[in-house]
Design goal:
The protein is of the alpha/beta class. It has twelve helices and ten strands. The protein has helices at 18-29, 41-53, 74-81, 100-118, 153-160, 164-167, 172-195, 223-229, 246-258, 276-286, 311-316, 324-334, and strands spanning 9-12, 33-38, 63-67, 86-89, 122-126, 200-206, 208-210, 242-245, 266-269, 272-273. It has a seven-stranded parallel β-sheet with strand order 3-2-1-4-5-6-9, with helices on both faces. It has a three-stranded mixed β-sheet with strand order 7-8-10. 43% of the residues are buried. The chain crosses the membrane at residues 6-28.
């Protein structure tokens, strides 16, 4: 199937989100027409204003918004997708409540079925690193590269075998997220295999995403950095992982619309394996007046000891990721530092 050329109409589900808003910005810059789904038209117009400040043409024929407030409604997805050429789907249902894992699975499959019905040509799904592995797990292989063939079966089993006491823990939402995203992506690939829809399919797998916001309040993923800049060291008890700049994550979503090499692939958005000492050193260099915590004790998990096969995503990005230092400094500026 031919790549989607500039001028094609692309639907971005939940376009006001952190990665999604950057994806929309970069897609407009690449010449695509954008239809963004939103829950609130107020947020939509705030985003339009932010794009306009970037010097982009945000007239109605270039950027339109439609209400989609139910990620389990095939009818709403069909209406949003009708007349479009491609879909980028980063949105997630609420992670709190009942039957969350099934809702994550269905909110992945339902729009895929809708896309097939209306003749979408390319469908890009936002996955996650934790559908591949659980950071800090001793079972992560260190003797080989982590690849797109790996899956977080350990995380799924942790969810399936959880005790009632474990389910009551505040940390269990992370287990639910990992299991839901793993099972949802596996279901998506199974759908591609068994149903042969008319669209080409790509999954982008972000790791820890930092970088400047396009508009609005700071993203949840930046709370780790925010807490460190305030002098809190609780974040440093977490296992370091890979960090990528949100601008690279957005770019990989857009590249997946028109690069033939991306079709049918799981693509890593995971620029840099990091350790807390490296991050803290960068922050001390640029923010010497902030109460940056002391370096944590050395550990086999700090810096991140496992390695991901980034060959395809690095190639798609032209051989270069935004540097960790630029990512951290621009993130801090976005937080008001």
């Amino acid at each position: 199937m031919a790549p989607l050329p500039p001028g094609s109409l692309i639907v971005i589900v939940g376009i006001t989100g952190y990665i999604a808003s950057h994806t929309g910005l970069l897609a407009l810059k690449a010449g695509y027409r954008i239809r963004g789904t939103v829950r609130s038209l107020t947020k939509a117009e705030d985003l339009r204003s932010a794009y306009e400040k970037e010097g982009l043409d945000v007239s109605r024929d270039k950027l339109e918004f439609v209400i989609l407030d139910d990620l389990l409604s095939e009818a709403q997805f069909e209406a949003a997708f009708t007349g479009a050429d491609g879909v980028i789907h980063p949105a997630l249902p609420d992670l709190y409540g009942e039957d969350v894992v099934n809702k994550i699975i269905q909110s992945t499959l339902i729009p895929m079925r809708a896309a097939a019905k209306v003749g979408i040509k390319r469908f890009v799904l936002t996955g996650t690193l934790v559908s591949v592995l659980t950071p800090g797990s001793p079972s992560i292989p260190l003797d080989r590269l982590i690849t797109d063939k790996d899956w977080n079966e350990e995380g799924v089993q942790k969810y399936l075998n959880a005790t009632e006491e474990e389910k009551k823990s505040p940390a269990f939402v992370g287990v639910v997220y990992a299991a839901g995203k793993t099972l949802a992506e596996q279901a998506a690939w199974k759908y591609i295999e068994t149903e042969s829809p008319p669209f080409e399919f790509t999954v982008v797998l972000p790791a820890m995403t930092w970088g400047p916001k396009v508009y609005g309040s700071a993203a949840t993923s930046l709370t780790w950095l925010w807490s460190i800049l305030k002098g809190e060291n609780s974040t440093l008890s977490r296992s370091p992982i890979y960090i990528e700049d949100v601008r690279d994550a957005g770019k990989l979503h857009v590249l997946s619309l028109h690069e033939q090499e991306a079709a049918g692939k799981r693509i890593w958005a995971a620029g840099h394996p990091v350790g807390w000492t490296e991050i803290l050193d960068i922050l001390r260099k640029h923010y010497p007046d902030q109460p940056i915590p002391k370096n944590p004790p050395t550990s086999p998990l700090n810096p991140c000891p496992w390695r991901i096969d980034l060959s395809l995503s690095t190639k798609l990005l032209g051989g270069k990721w935004i540097s960790l230092e630029d990512c951290i400094v621009d993130s801090a500026k976005s937080l008001g530092y």
